[in-house]
Amino acid sequence: MNDPTPVPGRIRNIAELARLAGVSTGTVSRALAGSSLVNKETRERIQAMAREHGFRPNQMARRLRVQETRVIGVVVPLGHERRQHLSDPFFMAILGHLADILTENGYDIMLSRVIPDADDWLERIVSSGMLDGVLLIGQSNQFEAIERVAQWYRPMVVWGSHQAGQTHCTVGVDNRKGGRLAGECLIAAGRTRLAFLGETVAPELSIRYDGLCDAAAAAGLPVPLKLDTHLASDIMAEEIAAHIERIGTEVDGIVAGSDLIAMHAVRALADKGVAVPQTVSVTGFDDLPLAEQTIPRLTTISQSIGTGARHMVDLLFARIAGQDAASIEMDPVLIRRDTA
C-alpha cells in the first residue's frame, strides 16, 4: 500500500500539508488563516508544520475565492500627452503618497501607465477581476470614458477637476481659483503683460488658464497670451526656449501650468540673462518638493498633494465598503517664495 505521507522537504500545496497533519484541507486552510473554528492546539500544530516545511499559502488564490484581491489599481491615463512618463515629478509625488497609504493599510498596488488607444481601455481594467478598486491619476482627455465606467463601477476615485453633474468621484483643487490666485499674485507685483505656459488640451491646465484670464479681466488687463507647452519633459525645454524670445518684450509675468514648466522657464530666462523676478515674474502650480529647492525658490500654487492622496484612498475604501462618497474639491493655496 502506498504511503500517503509526502516526501520530507518543501510542501507544495494545502493537500500535502493536510495529509501530513492528518486533517482535512478545509481544516488546514482555516488554521493557516488563524480561524477560531480550529482548536488552538491543532491550529498551532498545523502552522508549525507549515513553517517547518517552508509552505506559504497562495494568498492571491485565497483572495480570489473570497472575492477580495487586496490589490488597488493605480492608473495614469495619458490620452492628451502620450510622451509624458511616470518619472514626471508630479506623478512621483502623488504615487509616493498613495503607495505609502495603501501599503500601510495592507493593500498591494498594480501600477499602469495607459495610452488610451481603445474606447474600452478603462472597462478592461476594472473588469479584470484582479483589483478591489481603482485610483486614476488625472482625467487626461478621457472624461467621457471615465463617466461611462462610473455609471456601473463604484470603487473608483479620480484625481482631477469636478464638473457640475458628473458621476465619477474626484479629488482635486479648484483649478480655476488656483489660476486666478497666480494671476493676482503677478498683478499685485505690478505685472501687466501676462502669459500662460502650458498645454491647454489637458482639462486641468485649461481651467487654470481660465482662472488667469479671470484675474486679468478683473484688473482691466488684456487676455493673457497662451504659449503652448507640452508636459512631456523631453520636448518641454525646447518649446520654452522658443517662447523666451517673446518673453521680456511682450511678457513680464508668467503663470506656468505646472511646477516643472515653471522651473524650465526660470532656467531658460536665466540662460538669456533675464532676471527673475526683477524683469519677469514666474509662478508654478503643484508645490512639489523641488519647488523650494530651486534657485530662486519657486512661487507656486499648492495642490496639497499629500492631503489629496489621503482623501482619494479614504473615499475609495468607503466605496469598496458600499458607502456613498462624494467628490472633494480642495482650496488652492498661494505659496510665496522668490520668483514672484
TrEMBL record:
Residues 12-66 form the HTH lacI-type domain. Pfam families: LacI (PF00356), Peripla_BP_3 (PF13377). GO terms for molecular function: DNA binding. The keyword Transcription regulation applies. InterPro entries: HTH_LacI, LacI/GalR-like_sensor, Lambda_DNA-bd_dom_sf, Peripla_BP_I. PROSITE patterns: HTH_LACI_1, HTH_LACI_2. SUPFAM superfamilies: lambda repressor-like DNA-binding domains (SSF47413), Periplasmic binding protein-like I (SSF53822). CDD domains: HTH_LacI. Keywords: DNA-binding, Transcription, Transcription regulation. This is LacI family DNA-binding transcriptional regulator. It comes from Novosphingobium aquiterrae.
